[in-house]
Amino acid sequence: MAPNRPIPSEIDTHSIYHVESFRRRVGWGLHAFRIAKRNGLKVTHIHGRCYVRGCDFAAYLESLAQEAVDDA
Questions:
Q1: Which of 11, 12, 13, 28 is most enclosed, with most CB atoms within 10 A?
Q2: What domains appear along the chain, each with residue ranges and CATH number?
């Protein structure tokens, strides 16, 4: 039986998400999130808390798509 995981939901480009909320929304675990940060996902740090802007996530996905096109 598969673990009870939340269903990923959409990310609004005009919103800001706390890292935990963002990870739940996209269905990522901690390891996947760390790899995304290493590969260019921008994380904003404010007063000891970390946030991801929806527009930064969209830009990250665009950069991945561009890399895939360039490699093809």
A1: 11
A2: 16-71 (1.10.238)
E strand intervals along the chain: 16-18, 44-46, 49-53
Cβ burial of 22 (10 Å; 0-12, 13-18, 19+) is: buried
Among residues 22, 27, 34, the alpha carbon closest in space to that of 2 is found at 27
Sign of CA dihedral 39, 9, 31, 68: negative
9: left (phi over 0), alpha (psi -120 to 50) or beta: beta
Q: What is the pLDDT of residues 14-59, one digit of tens each?
A: 999 999 999 999 999 999 999 999 999 999 999 999 999 999 999 9
Separation CA 44–CA 65 (nearest Å) = 23
